[in-house]
Amino acid sequence: MSRNGPLALAYHTLFVSFMLAPILVVCIMAFTPEGYLSFPTDRWSLRWFYAIAQYPEFISAFWRSIWLGALSSAIAVAVSVPAALAIARYRFPGREAMTALFMSPLMIPHVVLGIAFLRFFTQIGIGGTFVGLVLAHIVIVLPFALRLTLASAIGLDRAIEHAAVSLGASEWIVLKRITLPLVLPGLASGWALAFINSFDEVTMTVFIAAPGTETLPVRMFLYIQDNIDPLVTSVSACVIAITVVALVVLDRAYGLERLLVGRGATHGR
Amino acid sequence: MRATPYLMSLPALVLFAGVVIVPLAMTMLLSFHDWGQYKGIEPVFILKNWQEVLGDSYFHEMFWRTFRIAFFVTLLAAVFGAPEAYILNKMKSPWRGIFLLVILGPLLISVVARTLGWALLFGGNSGLANKALMNMGLISAPLPFMFTETGVIVALAHVLMPYMVLAVWASLQRLDPQIENAAVALGAGPFTVVRRIVLPQVMPGILSGAVIVFALAASAFATPSIIGGRRLKVASTLAYDEFLNTLNWPLGAAVAVLLLFALVAIVWGANRLVERRYAQVFG
Fold this sequence. Notes:
Largest interface: A-B, 92 and 89 residues
Low-confidence stretches of chain A: 263-269
CATH class of chain B: Mainly Alpha
Largest sheet of chain B: 2 strands, antiparallel
Shape of chain A: globular
Oligomer: heterodimer
Radius of gyration of chain B: 23 Å
CATH superfamily of chain B: MetI-like
Number of strands of chain B: 2
Shape of chain B: globular
Helix content of chain A: over 70%
Strand content of chain B: under 5%
CATH class of chain A: Mainly Alpha
Distance between the termini of chain A: 18 Å
CATH topology of chain B: MetI-like fold
Strand order of the largest sheet of chain B: 1-2
Number of helices of chain A: 12
CATH superfamily of chain A: MetI-like
Distance between the termini of chain B: 34 Å
């Protein structure tokens, strides 16, 4: 295969600048010393990062997002593991339809899901509650959890399990000592991907979050709708920083390419 | 045991039946209910909302805008994302891994934060985006980006670009580099190699990327809401307005259900087309 020519590299540079520009501009403008939006030229200041502490709604929304992401991802993984093992090991009527159903939150517009959840939760009396948020988030992150647990369940060498059974291990012991430890890496990365998606979700959540149960992206979105100022810029810079750290850790631990492209698409990494 | 796989999937099935299927069915039903300023939602079965959504020119214009934006976003993503995936694929380690992380990474960064970045770049006639374009000599006068369709298209193309790069990248991985080498050995120039060898083989990747980008662009919410402002309405922001400002839930439900059906039809049709056209590639 030929190498990239100078023209290709120039194009690549422009493309990467385009991808990074809006992210960098947020991070740079967050350091402005002025009271309005501006590019810090000679002086950099942390005043807008300190200012976040004066706005408890951002802080509480942040912690709510963390708990919501951790809890809903954990439940989504817990529910996915048996389903993934069933899909990976059995051929049964309705297998394809069931898989499509579990993957459907990826295809249904989040606006439609938000509306459906809003109507449903209001009807059954949990509208605007944290319980409602958790239920909704389990559903939208389950496809991510299932995809990665399914990949590791399919890749599992069943000979090891057969060996354990032939050595006298009971079904429970096989599950606890062989199967679960073997799918653990897929499980952990499935949880991480689910967590990030829950943490970033805004379109669906904006419909079902009430003033006391807003998540961080929802709070940021509603704030931006009113006005754009350096405060929301510094909050966004913090969110970007946290995500980048998580990204690098995930890439080192599992490989971002594998995480996003999914199983089978890439060979020999 | 024949029931075993069903029992294992039971928790997930119960969850999806209760929290996905029932609410979606309720939303469809809701779109047939009546609503009045003072009486609220009336659980009757009428076609009023559907007649309004399908007959009123305001809704026609709004849906036409939604799909026009989605079309141009898809076009931009395909035209600019596919070559980048090709260039990326030719890079050597470690640059390949680093730039893959740089380009795919934004996918996991909050949409609100990324859109805020575009709002800052666009901001006013003296925005940074206009300064950069004028310095490069691409435009002579500042373009209005904020609160325009152009702005929404550019910002959405940025938000959804990683999906296109990812789809093309995945199909490039299945390519046998020996075919390219054979073409070069037989005297083909780099342009001919791309046009005659690479492009036909990655076309399914580009098309499947296009389907994803189109569906996500047509149902995008945060970006059109922040960049488009209150007046430039698309289907999802209109549904949001009906639900949380006007409180006409049945009408909002009709808009949302129509968006869902239109997208399902488009995605299904496109997938059928791709599968028939490229049956030999997939097979």
